[in-house]
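Bench notes, afternoon.
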Amino acid sequence: MRTNLKQKIAKRAAPVRALKKPAGPTIPRVLIIDDSKLARAAIRMVLEGEFEVVEAEDGEQGWKVLRGDDRIRVVITDANMPVLDGYGLIERIRQQPEEWLRRIPIVMVTSAEEKAARARALELGVTDFFNKPVYKTVFLDKVRTHMHLGQTTRKLIETSTALAAEGAIDTITQLNSQRYFLERIAQDLAYAKRHAQNLSSIFLEVDQYDELGRLHGDELTERLLCWIAEQLKETARTEDTIARMQGSRFVVTMINSGRLEAAVLGDRLRKLITSAEFMHQNTAIPITVSLCLVCVGRDPIDTVDDFLDLAERRLTRAKADGGNRMISGDTPETQMDDAIKNLVMNIDDVLQIALLDGESGNRNLARLAERAVVILELADGNLQTDMADGIRYIKAKLGKAIKDLDIG
């Protein structure tokens, strides 16, 4: 009986012991840097209760606190302080290799009249300003906004770091990494050869990239890489694979696409990047790129090494010829006219196949019409023939015909 009683007591007591108060969420942490004790106290009074506040008396002390505490999500600093002022602190933070430091929200407390101070801080990378005197409601709203930004940024960085550790994601551009591309292209190449399918890749590299780095520093080159990545994502198709290789080299792989489709996309990319404005410190910096195509089924490719070697040779040639151009094959420009003449001579043979009677002939004709539309798109872009509306109409009609023929 005693044993049963002890067991019953233990069973009843166990849930009670488990009902400990759960640990609450971590309170967001803000760093206040100001040589005025009164100023720090005023800001602390506004923030305490919603945020955890840590303080520093000057920029150097604030820097040491920030480096030693990765829970800080927002930095609030004065402009004029001894030892290291707010401007020097902002510059130091923005130059750090750790991404969470470089991107942490930094807010400077100034008066509305200090326009020169604000301009200088903006140039160095400050996120926002608070006007003196500090009004609680406005101040809190701004800190909440920047705290959300800081926490979101940190989560994204941690996620990207985890993915990068697996080698799948490029840490700067968030595109697929070189490692991912090499694994993927080996699979795609084997599949394309086994099933006799087209596979094309556009390799792209920024002209004068090293020179831009020497002139403007790493901050510009990293921003440029991200800008190029955005142009690629906006222009490539959903089904295409985009990756960043080493340096400023990128690659777009197009499954089941031939050289003509790849040439149209590559030319569109080159023109977009050349015409778009890449801004740095309120100045537009002209950017051009060199491109090349590598196409399974048209180029002598058996292995991934063949694929990469061919891309290297063609990109080198594009840059040596002055850049801002695309190399689609190994035929020298002086032989291009002869190649076009031979192509025209072979059209009669192609038409004989297309004009076969019955469903087979229609399928051939539909495929040839698709290729013709690609050529029209390329001609419209290069020759400025203003045929875009007509081409869209043709593509719509042709698309319906291909669908009716059930061509996969």
